[in-house]
Design brief:
ABC_transporter-like_ATP-bd, alpha/beta, binds adenosine-5'-triphosphate, ATP hydrolysis activity, ATP-binding, six-stranded mixed beta sheet, binds magnesium ion
């Protein structure tokens, strides 16, 4: 049985545009509102095995972030199924209890760290344990310190986010994700907000987690990570999975012309 199976995820966004006022023409308020539907996910299927590190590649706007957000119910899909550890959730209409249960097993690392600015590194890591999991503070602090140590930041436990570099802040965010003891971590471009010289330290932590067997689903533009660290690579475009394969195969012998074109373009810009 696979750890995570995603089937047929669909998601559209509707945008409402108010009619522009033209000189001399009277518009009733709200009249002729233009609605357009943007199909962002058009039937995404994906399977993740325990211990897999799956890299999701794709051009900007292809729906990668939307997909990750739908998987953790940060966004409600229009349709789709997610099976986690044998339990199936309807991505379009799960109950609050279902969502809470699923989120206990998952963690999310965002591009922009999303740390509390008025809390120290340690407090950021322990907040969820103390508030959501009702863990006694001493125990939470012990877990927090262990995780900060793991990401190489034990000596920064009492620093506030503004006193940390971007790379360090992202490592705190990873420590926070680890503290909740997730079965899978979703990463959305964890290094793309960082200066190039700071991406290495974050990628090194992720590589270490991969080696320890952590299951991860990583949206990334880092081809080195996809090629050398991830076990499987997925190429998304226009809301569908164009191609997915074991990473060595994906890079050595891409089957789809669209994938080859994408890889050629990337090779030129790197
Ligand atoms: N809340 C929203 N409302 C309306 N449109 C949205 C919303 N979120 C995303 N979109 C649109 O959905 C499409 C897919 O966005 P998404 O952020 O998933 O792409 P992405 O693959 O993550 O791109 P990038 O590589 O730039 O991060 C884009 O056209 C985007 O403008
Ligand atoms: Mg994105």
């Amino acid at each position: 049985m696979s750890m995570l199976e995603i089937k047929n995820v669909h998601k559209s966004f509707f945008t409402y545009t108010k009619p522009r006022l033209q000189a001399g023409i009277f518009h009733r308020p709200g009249a002729r509102k233009v609605t357009s539907e943007l199909l962002v996910l058009r039937g995404v299927d994906l399977t993740v095995e325990k211990g897999d590190v799956v890299a999701i590649l794709g051009p900007s706007g292809s729906g990668k972030t939307t997909l990750l957000r739908c998987l953790n119910f940060l966004e409600t899909a229009d349709a789709g199924q997610l099976t986690f550890d044998g339990e199936t959730f309807d991505l379009a209409q799960a109950s609050r209890a279902d969502i809470a249960r699923l989120r206990k097993k998952t963690a999310f690392v965002f591009q922009s760290y999303n740390l509390f600015r008025n809390k120290t590194a340690l407090q950021n890591v322990t907040e969820g344990l103390i508030i959501a999991r009702k863990m006694p503070k001493e125990q939470a602090d012990a877990v927090g310190m262990k995780m900060l140590k793991k990401v190489g930041l034990a000596d920064r436990a009492d620093y506030y986010p503004r006193q940390l570099s971007g790379g360090q802040q992202q490592r705190v965010a990873i420590a926070r994700a680890l503290a909740s003891d997730p079965e899978i971590i979703y990463f959305d471009e964890p290094t793309s907000a960082l200066d190039p010289e700071l991406t290495g330290e974050v990628l090194a932590v992720m590589r270490q987690l991969a080696e320890e067997g952590m299951t991860m689903l990583v949206v990334t533009h880092e081809m080195g990570f996809a090629r050398n660290v991830s076990s499987k690579t997925v190429f998304m475009e226009n809301g569908v999975v164009v191609e997915q394969a074991p990473s060595h195969e994906f890079f050595a012998n891409p089957k789809e012309e669209r994938t080859r074109e994408f890889l050629r373009k990337i090779a030129h810009t790197e």
